[in-house]
Structure to design on (259 residues):
């Protein structure tokens, strides 16, 4: 047997394909309770990450305008999981009985940098696609130049049927959002937890989790959207608490969904 064959065989022996568990509709609420426990165990570090993400959300809505700005804000839901890696690591450390604090988690992405970095590129590509789709949808309904946020709101208020644009925009976004959610629901916590896991395998496992538990996972996705939207509606202050809670809960979703 050649040296390359030995390396390949060793890698195959180290990698065990994760098994997906089934769970009920009560699971998302259980994850939130467990996530709240993690947040209370490390409030300073958790709220630090929440504050950073809240500032990002504020900057997006404050300085991004028009169709691209609307895409950036809604795209926040797409790339949010990557920025929660430190939050996942807080939950992982607590479960493992390790030291929990801000400093050890700031470099959590190094645990599996090639896979986590590649996944970040995939999320950014998804965001770029969504921005382009968003601009096209807005341009179809507002053909006379790129409207500002205020102009979009005013024209929708005057429109006899504003729901046509709203439904078209939601339909375009929901397809991309569902694809990203299906491949990211548990993939990033898994990449952090399993250093021999590659990006594509993690995305496949995440998709299998959604397929095996479609209704509970749709509920979980709806809860994430509702909580994040409430955070934005509270002038970003709610994001400081909501986003760490979602991050911690997502770790527990991964731990329950994947053997």
């Amino acid at each position: 047997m050649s040296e390359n064959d030995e390396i390949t065989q060793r890698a195959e022996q180290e990698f065990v394909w994760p098994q997906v568990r089934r769970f009920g509709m009560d699971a998302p609420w259980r994850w939130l309770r467990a996530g709240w426990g993690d947040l209370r165990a490390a409030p300073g570090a958790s709220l630090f990450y929440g504050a950073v993400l809240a500032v990002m959300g504020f900057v997006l809505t404050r300085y991004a305008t028009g169709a691209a700005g609307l895409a950036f804000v809604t795209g926040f839901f797409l790339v949010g999981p990557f920025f929660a890696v430190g939050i996942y690591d807080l939950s992982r450390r607590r479960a493992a009985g390790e030291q929990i604090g801000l400093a050890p988690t700031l470099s959590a992405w190094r645990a599996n940098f090639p896979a986590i970095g590649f996944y970040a590129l995939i999320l950014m590509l998804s965001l770029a696609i969504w921005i382009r789709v968003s601009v096209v949808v807005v341009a179809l309904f507002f053909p006379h130049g790129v409207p500002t946020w205020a102009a979009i709101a005013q024209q929708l208020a005057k429109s006899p049927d504003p729901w046509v644009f709203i439904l078209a925009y939601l339909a375009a976004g929901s397809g991309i959002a569902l694809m990203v959610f299906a491949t990211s629901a548990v993939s990033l916590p898994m990449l952090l937890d399993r250093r021999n896991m590659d990006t594509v395998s993690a995305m496949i496992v995440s998709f299998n989790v959604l397929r095996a538990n479609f209704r509970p996972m749709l509920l979980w996705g709806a809860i994430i959207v509702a909580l994040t939207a409430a955070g934005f509606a509270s002038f970003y202050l709610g994001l400081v608490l909501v986003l760490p809670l979602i991050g911690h809960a997502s770790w527990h979703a991964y731990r329950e969904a994947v053997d």
Notes: The first helix runs from residue 3 to 14.
